[in-house]
What we know:
This protein is mainly beta. It has 4 helices and 17 strands.
Amino acid sequence: MSLTARGVHAIPTCLIALAQAAAVPVAPLPAERPQIAYAPVLDAEVEHAPPRRAVQPVGPATAFAEDGVRIGRVRLFDGGKLLLTNGVSTVEGSSGGGIARWATIAGRQMPGGVGVSAHATAIELPDYGWRSYGVAVGFGDRLELSVSRADFDTRDVGAALGIGQGYTFNMETFGAKLRVAGDLVYGETWLPQIAVGIEHKRSRDGALVRALGAADDAGTDYTVSATKLLLARSLLVNATARYTKANQLGLLGFGSAGDGYRLQFEGSLGYQLSRRAVVGAEYRSKPDNLGLGEDDWMDIFAAYALTDHLTLTAAYVDLGSIATFPDQRGGFLSAQVAF
């Protein structure tokens, strides 16, 4: 009886505990579906840009930009050369020094581009005056084509020589130059930029130059030039071999009854004071086919790039004897525009 009574009394106590637990309120389930933290980012609407080609199609249109003009794949006047590394303009119209041809290519274009330069030059001497002007076009850093005209005023000498007071000789020059090896600035120090070229010249005074003893009124010079700019020393060195029969560059015709082609030398040495300024000297040997005492030419020059496209060159020149009149020394001034 005692055990049974204890069990009976234990049952109501358990029931009471269960009833109390059931009476505790339970939180309701959420009405909305739970979302993970990054779901809104994934669900956000993204504004897509229209698709573009990696390379724009090349068309026939011409595009103007800060880096020049583009026609198809070719860039015109896209100047990127170091200043003065295209040279200035020679008296015959090609790129180089004032009186010596260099291996440089006219224009400020980079490889694959096309550049152009134009020049005007004046030389004042005691008895003569020289004026020349011309244009040169560079293709990449490989090929140069040039054309120029020179006018040589005899002033009072014309009357003394019996050809007329102030008679002016005229000459046209058509040039081509091809770089075949090396680089002016970069590459091996021992390997200069090397270029071969021609200059076809034509006197517009054929009857007169023949009367003076010239064999022809037209002729072609053949040149090989080697030029190197040693940046570490700010030094430019040039040497040119010219195979020619020109009398006074061709102003007085070409060759004579007894003389023809001869090998001549041209040399230049320049020192770069800054990226815009260079000073130096040049020498050019010349044949004396007519027996008039034709002398070699020399100059001391200074060139300065006023802007990236405009360069002025001034020089003191010693042109020796010209048509029996000695001591032809004076001033040289040239302006070149290049793109």
